[in-house]
Amino acid sequence: MPPKRPVVKKRTGKGLRKRVARSAAKIFSSRSAALLLIGAAVIAALALANRGGSAAVTPSPSGKPALEQGGLWQSAVQVAWQTKDATGSLSYCRGGSGGLVAEIDQVLTNEHVVNDSGNTGVCADAKLYVGYPVEPTGVYFVWWPARVRGSNAFLDLALVDVDLTADPIAEDSLYPASIVFTHEWPVYTVASAAPALGDPISIYSYPAIGGYSMTFTAGHVAGWSRDYWTRSEASNRSAAWGAAFALDADGYREYMKLDATLAHGSSGSSVLNASGEIIGVSSLVGVGEQTTTVDCAHLADTNGDGATDERDSCIPVGGFLNAAATLTDIRAFLTDQGLRLQP
Predict the structure, then answer these.
(1) Is residue 188 situated within a structural domain?
(2) Does 140 share its domain with 209?
(3) What is the CATH number of the domain that holds 321?
(4) What are phi and psi of 34, to 5 degrees?
(5) d(CA 245, CA 153)
(6) Alpha-carbon distances, residue 215 vs 69, 202, 231, 292 (angstroms)
(7) Contacts of 139 (CB under 8 A, 6+ apart)
(8) Which residues contact 72 (CB under 8 A, 6 or more apart)?
(9) Alpha-carbon distances of 329 from 167, 190, 194, 230, rounded to whole Å
(10) Residue 193 within any structural domain of the chain
């Protein structure tokens, strides 16, 4: 079925789509670290008008052709819960990142990004959408509705199907939905060979601290870590988490450690090797739910009592390490969802 005519979401003022990041000064527990990678945001109501899309590729704000030679960034999509009012205007509730895998309408992301349990209040009726970046600065997107094909709460992985036959919503008439269909839109492949310690990695994602647009970070495979739960501990988690845990052979959850920067909103982004293949999915701030997220020390007399001791504020020191789902878990999960991966 050919794509439908796009609705164009026009910008009506500066900063209308800026994410609202949570305070960076607040230190959160490692148990809730996965949920905290979700970027919190609110989009102001935007006027919508029906316009036909042109297949022509127009210049981007950077002055570059919109899709000059393509790039890995094109496969890095936004995954967001949004509400739609009577006029068809979308309002962003919360979301994260994802990567197109194997097909243009399949997105690999985190389970906690697509879990709707956080949709409350004005966002109680929010629906899942996927936004495709349609110019190389990663500022403008075309959105389609989506649904979760399958998920695993224990591994924190989800596969999302995008309905590309539905009405698309383009954020700017210069970048219509037709751009996606009139080019060989790239998708990621899943690596066959396991990464090695020290291998370079790259991540295209949408952290709240980076604003609304795409952000590129890079680093290395910093090692591996794992968490362990007993059956008793698992009984205190959600039903979906417990069901997935029950299928695990030994109660361990493995992670790939990263020294690349992650922040709220990076959840679900694909971790790529030097060949641009998926070797991980960004999941956690810190290297595990049961490990201290931030290293800190009492370095200054912050309370002004003339002494530097445990009564002073603990100041973060050193570097920050983060975690991603492992290639082994990703391949097993996608195979369970019916994807045929390269051996």
Answers:
(1) no
(2) no
(3) 2.40.10.10
(4) -60, -45
(5) 8
(6) 19, 11, 39, 26
(7) 61, 212, 213, 214
(8) 186, 188, 202, 204, 272, 276
(9) 34, 12, 11, 20
(10) no
Q: How far apart are CA 207 and CA 205, in angstroms?
A: 6
pLDDT one-digit tens code per residue, 257-286: 999 988 889 999 999 999 999 999 999 887
Integer-rounded Cα radius of gyration of the chain: 21
Residue entry with tokens 């224990």: 154
Which two three-digit tokens encode residue 16? 């209308």
First to last CA, the chain: 32
Q: Tokens 């991980």 sit at which residue?
A: 280
Residue 27 structure tokens: 């230190």
Same domain, 24 and 155: yes
- What is the model's pLDDT at position 140? 92
Domain that holds residue 255: 200-306+317-336
pLDDT in tens, 16-44: 332 222 222 233 333 344 444 444 333 33
Give domain status of residue 149, yes or no: yes
Tokens for 259, please give them.
Answer: 């020294």
pTM metric for this prediction: 0.77
